[in-house]
Amino acid sequence: MHFVSVIGRFKPSATFEQARSDLDSVAVAAQKKYPETNEQRGTTMVPLQEAMVGGVRKPMYFPGAAVGLLTAIRVE
Question: Which residues contact 48 (CB under 8 A, 6 or more apart)?
Fold first, then answer.
């Protein structure tokens, strides 16, 4: 299995769904042109923020709230 991460930017008028559609088109073209090596290959596109903190974001709400509460209590 091969895995490659790529970071890109949209042009200002592009939407996430348009970019995903374009990326899927590139993957399909590669599968057709090189079926021996790209038959089981595909693409996944996620926003950068989700890729960086996606699985950590919600679990960090509670510790963040606890720190805020303790800070508020300490200040009084």
Answer: 7
